[in-house]
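Following up on my earlier message about phosphoenolpyruvate. Here are the inputs again, as you asked, copied directly from the submission form:
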Amino acid sequence: MRKHIVAGNWKMNNDLKATKKLIKQIKKSIKKIELNTTRVIVAPTFVNLASAVKRSKKSKLEVAAQNMHQAKHGAYTGEVSAEMLKSVGVKTVILGHSERRAYFGETDELLAEKVNAALANKLEVIFCFGEELEDRKAGNQEAVVESQLNKALFHLDAEAFRHIVLAYEPVWAIGTGETATPDQAQDMHAFIRKTLANKYDADTADGVTILYGGSVKPNNAKEIFGKPDVDGGLIGGASLNPEDFFAIVNAF
Ligand code: PEP
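Thanks, got it. Here's what our run produced:
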């Protein structure tokens, strides 16, 4: 059975003190519920990863990084490698977030390199992708998504997909308060699974966890997560509020 995941992307929010506080609050709230097949992940900023990992030990809370560089090491001022993430106990990295693509020029070709570096270091990848508003308006969303998967991931073999989580995030729904309808999310997730089945095989397609991201809030999570091909969410804004994040986790 596919794992469900609720992952909070904290982006450039929360200093060390706030990180410690939020981790404590989330740990306390998830202790109260039976998580069953659901994994709960938070992604603090780089400087707070080591502390977050330490404070999440002996709990069910997992910690991910928001990005990494594709090179092993070297003269890349300001960057962080997969090995560095591993050395502080991080096991998962988010790659390809639309903000990385839009503000830092990350292309699918570059992301393919990052994915390779992450997998070579045995990091799990949460790979984000999704169409812009113009693509959706023109009815091109499936072609765009297929092209992103093709360029960034489809050089991998089926076995590698055991370490990949997909996060479909329509760019027009991120941080805008506008959400894809549960049916729009389901249609796209079903399309992604069909694309995986065509490229690889039905078992691989069935086994991949596909998250939805884009203004998931406590009031819409249950309906979105209720769709058969939606295996959880990548949560931005609402993951900064412990009550809202817990309510979203609890929507499963
Ligand atoms: C995100 O940044 O991945 C995201 C989904 O943000 P929000 O939930 O705020 O739309």
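One observation from looking it over: Strands lie at 4-9, 38-43, 61-65, 92-95, 124-129, 164-168, 210-213, 232-235. Hope that helps, and feel free to reply on this thread.
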